[in-house]
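Quick question, first post here. What does this chain look like in 3D?
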Amino acid sequence: MTDFFNQAITGLLQQSPIEHIAVGLGLAYLILILRQNVWGWPCALISTALFTYVFWDVSLFMESLLNVYYMGMAIYGFWNWNRASADQPTLPIITWPLKTHALALGAIFILSGASGYYLTTNTTAAWPYLDSFTTWGAVITTYMVAQKVFENWLYWLVIDAVALYLYIDRGLYPTALLMAVYLILVVVGLITWARLLQQQESPASNHA
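> Answer (accepted):
Ran it through. Tokens below.
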């Protein structure tokens, strides 16, 4: 672990300013989303535009394409979170039933297998199956965030852990350090949103 952080700090000094800016905005995005602040989405839009270039440059093609998708979801998330009414000034946190999770997980694994096979046979992509898993997992999980689905934090725990390994392997140490911080913030987000969901569903809160 000490070696990783030493390499991450060294990488921070060596990597391009583009990755540094993308990392900083990515961190701002998660902190703001954790606090249910809609301005996290503009941070995400700029950060993911920069990461699209960064990942393509190190042959993580699915991660690069994923960030193109993130850009679109940042626009959608900003619009969706801004929807308000007199009775519901803030988009509520919701949960998905087990059947929906089963469909989502099934889709992730099927799509990951298909795209991983394609990348293996037709490209020079690094870690095609893991790259595909983090990509398709993030596609669905980002949609969950835009919809304020509580369980998104559980999905991110797994996805970010796999992504952390990928980024270390490809020498993207600042981005890997961001993922390590993300994992901590994901746990904080899980706890925070669980508390907010409980308050949201309590009779006293509804009455207020």
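The chain has a mean pLDDT of 86.
The longest helix spans residues 173-201.
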